[in-house]
């Protein structure tokens, strides 16, 4: 028997109403793919990176809200947002599995059509790195041609990082956060501080007495865990597809990406584990 959903009250006439596609802007999304070659796999490459940018947009949205919540001492809200960010990066990690179905011979059919464009130039990815503490001002250069984007990045550099906001909250809770950490130049990259490691040791040795700080620390570790996996999957995928060729944007390719694996976002939260 053929089922007609309108018999159960489902709306089927959208001539004067907003539809699902209208609300989500589906037409704009599905017409935003413009391959430059006849290669079959270029569509995969484009959609992989477009969807990753959408997930990064959501991660930035949540990260912005989480920092504002922490600054306002709304920690339950911040905890939920940080948990969501970790899950977003879990989705970003899964996307590499799809891209890895593309072989080197398939990629070479359209790689030259990319010109100098490269994921290295993703300004949303740069915003995420800046937001969590990897504040390398040299990475502003690829965006100098876009004053609007440069303004966003400069504004981020002037703002306390996620880690800064967490440590400021710990100070408000009465934990011994070093004064130089609270007054540091937030434009500078974070550098590991043994006094901050000692602070986290206090928290981890007595979680019950410092539950809020303990829970927040684990949320940060969750995020960095997924973020590290994302970087590792990036390296593995690139090596699998192009080997040790230079990146399309002129980077050293694999050697550049491997250097990024060494960057720690919240170093004290990893080092405290050795101290316990």
Précis, in short:
The chain has 276 residues and is mostly helical.
How many alpha or pi helices?
13
Q: Care to count the β-strands?
A: 0
> What is the helix fraction of residues, given as a range?
55-70%
Q: Strand portion, in percent?
A: under 5%
- Number of structural units classed as domains: 1
User: How much is the radius of gyration in Å?
Assistant: 22 Å
- In terms of per-residue confidence, which ranges show pLDDT below 50 for 5 or more consecutive residues? none
| Dominant shape | globular
Task: Walk me through the topology.
Blueprint: H1 20-24, H2 26-30, H3 42-71, H4 75-99, H5 104-108, H6 123-131, H7 147-157, H8 162-172, H9 179-182, H10 194-205, H11 211-242, H12 254-261, H13 267-275
Give an overview of the whole structure.
The protein is an all-alpha fold. The chain has one domain: Methane Monooxygenase Hydroxylase, Chain G, domain 1, CATH 1.20.58. Helix content is 60%, strand content 0%. It has 13 helices and no strands. The model has no long low-confidence stretch (mean pLDDT 91).
Attribute tags:
276 residues, 13 helices, 60% helix
């Amino acid at each position: 028997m053929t089922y007609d959903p309108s018999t159960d009250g489902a709306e089927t006439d959208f001539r004067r109403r907003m539809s699902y596609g209208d609300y989500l802007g589906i037409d704009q999304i599905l017409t935003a793919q413009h391959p430059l070659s006849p290669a079959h796999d270029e569509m995969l490459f484009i959609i992989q990176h477009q969807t990753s940018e959408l997930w990064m947009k959501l991660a930035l949205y949540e990260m912005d809200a989480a920092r504002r919540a922490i600054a306002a001492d709304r920690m339950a809200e911040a905890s939920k947002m940080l948990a969501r960010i970790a899950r977003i990066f879990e989705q970003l990690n899964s996307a590499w599995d799809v891209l890895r179905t593309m072989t080197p011979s398939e990629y070479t059919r359209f790689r030259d059509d990319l010109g100098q464009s490269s994921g290295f130039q993703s300004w949303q990815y740069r915003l995420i790195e800046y937001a969590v503490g990897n504040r390398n001002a040299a990475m502003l250069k690829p965006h100098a041609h876009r004053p609007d984007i440069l303004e966003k990045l400069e504004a981020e550099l002037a703002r306390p990082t996620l880690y800064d906001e967490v440590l400021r909250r710990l100070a408000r809770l009465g934990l011994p956060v070093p004064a130089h950490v609270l007054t540091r130049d937030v434009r500078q990259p974070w550098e590991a501080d043994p006094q901050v490691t000692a602070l986290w040791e206090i928290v981890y040795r007595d979680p019950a007495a410092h539950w809020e700080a303990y829970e927040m620390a684990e949320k940060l570790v969750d995020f960095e865990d997924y973020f590290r996996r994302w970087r590792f999957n990036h390296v593995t995928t690139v090596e699998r597809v192009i080997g040790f060729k230079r990146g399309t944007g002129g980077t050293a390719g694999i050697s550049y990406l491997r250097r990024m694996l060494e960057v720690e976002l919240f170093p004290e939260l990893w080092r405290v584990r050795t101290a316990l």
